[in-house]
Design a protein that fits this description.
The protein has about 120 residues and is mainly α. The protein has 5 helices and no strands. Helix content is about 60%, strand content about 0%. It is elongated.
Length: about 120
């Protein structure tokens, strides 16, 4: 196993864990100090070519909770099946776009899609 990669992943996930704790908890000051210390240790441990760039900004988040809730409800689903966004964009608009390109520019569609056994057009019906 690539031990160094796993250690890097551990250090990075520790930073992500601290960021989540900072975002979701009420004790901002102690977690803020832990996060800065972990970032400093991460930068010291991993050379610039191997690490991710981590930026810390402890100012208030400018998106309101209502906007986040609405966006989450629109883009994430709680039950199986298609969401409204899936029906609108993925199923209908992509189907229309595919049929347009198939008729107007048949050579622009890659050959493996045109010559496949199942045919891509069956997906967009």
């Amino acid at each position: 196993l690539p031990g160094e990669d796993i250690e890097h992943m551990r250090d990075l996930f520790h930073l992500i864990l601290l960021a989540r704790r900072f975002y979701f908890s009420d004790e901002e000051e102690s977690i803020q100090q832990d996060l800065l210390a972990a970032k400093k240790a991460y930068k010291a441990r991993w050379p610039k070519s191997r690490r991710y760039r981590i930026k810390t900004d402890f100012s208030n988040f400018h998106v309101k909770r209502r906007t986040l809730k609405w966006t989450t409800a629109l883009l994430l689903r709680k039950t199986r099946g298609y969401r409204f966004v899936d029906h609108l964009f993925t199923l209908h608009l992509l189907g229309i776009a595919f049929r347009f390109f198939q008729r107007r520019f048949p050579k622009k569609i890659p050959k493996f899609l045109r010559k496949s056994a199942m045919g891509v057009e069956s997906l967009f019906r």
